[in-house]
Amino acid sequence: MAGGGDLKLLGMWASPFVLRVKLALSFKGLSYEYVEEDIVRGKSELLLKSNPVHNKVPVLIHNGKPVCESLIILQYIDEAFAGTGPSLLPSDPYERAVARFWAAYIDDKLLPSWLQSFRGKTDEEKAEGLKQTLAAVDQLEAAFKECSKGNKPLFGGDSVGYVDVALGSLA
Ligand SMILES: N[C@@H](CCC(=O)N[C@@H](CS)C(=O)NCC(=O)O)C(=O)O
Q1: Which terms in the Gene Ontology molecular function aspect does this entry carry (predicted)?
Q2: Is 151 left (phi over 0), alpha (psi -120 to 50) or beta?
Q3: Residue 112 is part of a domain; what is its CATH number?
Q4: Which residue puts its alpha carbon closest to atom 2 of ligand 1?
Q5: Considering 55, 80, 105, which residue would you say is the last residue of a domain?
Q6: Distance 90 CA to ligand 1 centre (A)
């Protein structure tokens, strides 16, 4: 494992958003200190100070400076440690924009409808959530086929990338 300077991850074991960051740090081969937060019974002073806007995990603290929001943290890791391990985002600006689009789609479209499919207040709300989840998965699958032309095994091509990490953490 490479040293990434002073890297600390504030997380919670069951969080798919935290898992994204763990996966990215692991693919990059970066070592870090992990701090488990108890987000139900009491968040630490460090978390409240590091993420005063949302008070949520994950937070990555790099040399004392906090970075919040899992997708932004992935991009930060890729840029701040560009010389370490594989790149998560494609080097081509257009492909990079496409990867960012689909990662945002996963969080803005797929995730809310999937949550509604089992957290909806009524059976109708749950059914609507499921319908929207399946439609979102269909669109994602079509995009995956498009990206996989030439039989690339993963969203980003031959190696694990940004969208694979964003989606894989939810699986
Ligand atoms: N959009 C955020 C979502 C993070 C999130 O929802 N974290 C949850 C754990 S899974 C949390 O910290 N919840 C505490 C709270 O809502 O007070 C991200 O991608 O990092």
Answers
A1: glutathione transferase activity
A2: left
A3: 1.20.1050.10
A4: 69
A5: 80
A6: 26
